[in-house]
Amino acid sequence: MKNYEEFYHLETERLTLRTFTEEDYPLILRISSDPKTTEYLYYWGRIGTTPESDAKRFLDYAVKNWRKTPIRAREFCLVLKETGEAIGDGSVEWVEDEPGTAEIGWILLPEYRGRGYATEAGRELMRAAFEVMGADTVIAHCDSRNQPSRNVMERLGMTLREITPGARPAKRVGELNGDECTYAVERAL
Q1: DSSP string computed for 53-108
Q2: What pLDDT score does 69 carry?
Q3: Top CATH class, 5-186
Q4: What is the pLDDT of residue 2?
Q5: Nearest 5°: CA angle at 68, between 65 and 181?
Q6: Per residue in 112-122, is it b (16+ CB within 10 Å) or e — as a string?
Q7: Domain boundaries, the chain
Q8: Cβ atoms of 42 and 57 closer than 8 Å
Q9: Residue 101 and residue 137 in contact, taking contact as beta carbons nearer than 8 Å
Q10: Among 114, 119, 86, CA closest to 104
Q11: pLDDT at position 4, please?
Q12: β pairing state of 73-80 and 86-94
C-alpha cells in the first residue's frame, strides 16, 4: 500500500495546503454564498440548494475523506503562509473509471484570483498526484465558459482532451446545461 504521509506536508512558496477542520466553515460558506464563485462549479449552487446546505455538505465531505483509507480523495484548505488566512480549496482524487488517473481542482475566494495562487496550488496538487499517489495521468475539468480556469490548466502544462456538450448541470431554472472541458497531462518520463 502506498504511503500517503506526504499529503500532510504539502506547501508552495506562498501557500500551505492543509486538512479542513470544522473551523473552516466560514470560508466554505463564503465560497458557497458567492454567485460568481459558484457560477461554473458543478457541485455548488445547484438548483434547490442553499449556500448553507452546500457549505455543510462540502465540509462534511472534506473532513470525512481525510479519515478514509485507502485514499481516494483529499480536499485541502489553501492558506496564505504570510498571514495564515484561508483563501480557498484545492483537491486531488482518483478517477474511479480511469485507472492510474487523478483529478485536481481549485476554488479561490474572489479577492485572491489573478495573483497566481490557483496555478501555484495546482502545480503542487499535480506534483502530489504524480509523486505521492503514483498517477500516470492528471486531469482537470471546468465549464467551457470558465476561461480563467482553462488558463490555469494550460499554465500547468495540461492540454485540452475533450469538450463534452451539456455535461455541466444548469444552475438556474430555464438555463441550459453547460459544456465541460477536460484537460490532461501525462507523467513525464
Answers
A1: HHHHHHHHHHHHHTT-SS--EEEEEEEETTT--EEEEEEEEE-TTSTTEEEEEEEE
A2: 66
A3: alpha beta
A4: 57
A5: 45
A6: ebeeebbbbbb
A7: 5-186
A8: no
A9: yes
A10: 119
A11: 64
A12: antiparallel
Given this model, what pLDDT does residue 87 score?
97
Assess contact for 42 and 109: CB atoms under 8 A: no
What pLDDT is recorded for position 1?
Answer: 40
What pLDDT, on the 0 to 100 scale, is given for residue 23? 95
CB neighbour list of residue 148: distance below 8 Å, 6 or more residues apart: 113, 114, 118
Contact present, 184 and 158 (Cβ < 8 Å): yes
Kindly state the cell numbers that stand for 85: 488566512
How far is Cα 92 from Cα 137, in angstroms, rounded to an integer?
12
Q: Report the alpha-carbon angle 52-57-62, nearest 5.
A: 125
Cell matching residue 32: 458557497
User: What pTM does this model have?
Assistant: 0.91
The residues of the chain scoring below 50 in pLDDT are 1
With beta carbons less than 8 A apart as the criterion, state whether 141 and 28 touch.
no
Residue 107 and residue 126: Cα distance in Å, rounded? 15
In degrees, rounded to 5, the angle at the alpha carbon of residue 162 between the alpha carbons of residues 126 and 165 is: 125
